[in-house]
Amino acid sequence: MARRKRKAFFKVVLLLAFFFFAVTWINIQATSMGYKIEQKRESINRIKGENERLFQKINSQLSLEKLEKEAFQMGLIYPEPDILVLLPDKNRAARRPAQVAKIFNMTLLKAS
């Protein structure tokens, strides 16, 4: 009978030890996963910030004022309304020279 009690006691101790190690291992894994998740969040925030900065840079490079200034520095000028060749749109009728002049913020000179 004493031998059975020792065997049962040993099984209980072994089961408790296994349970203790299993819980400890799970906690270590959860903590490790938490650190990895936090690192990924920091990486995502850093990339989002860099993405936003690059979009701002693109927008500033493509601003109409900057493009116009660079075009004038390259020697480009606005076309004269009378030399514009208007091609018909597939979806709309051809624009009139007055509409084109309005798009380019130009004043349309009347031919005499």
> What spatial form do the alpha-carbon principal axes imply?
rod-shaped
Tell me the distance between the termini. 126 Å
Judged by helices, strands and strand pairing, the structural class is mainly alpha
Sheet of most strands:
none
Which whole number gives the mean pLDDT? 82
Describe this structure in words.
- The chain is an all-alpha fold and 112 residues long.
- It has two domains: 2-74; 78-112, no CATH class.
- It has three helices and no strands.
- It is rod-shaped, with a radius of gyration of 38 Å.
- 0% of the residues are buried.
- The model has no long low-confidence stretch (mean pLDDT 82).
Descriptive key words:
rod-shaped; 0% strand; mainly alpha; 112 residues; 2 domains
Give the structure's gist in a few sentences.
69% of the residues lie in helices and 0% in strands. It has 112 residues and is mainly alpha-helical.
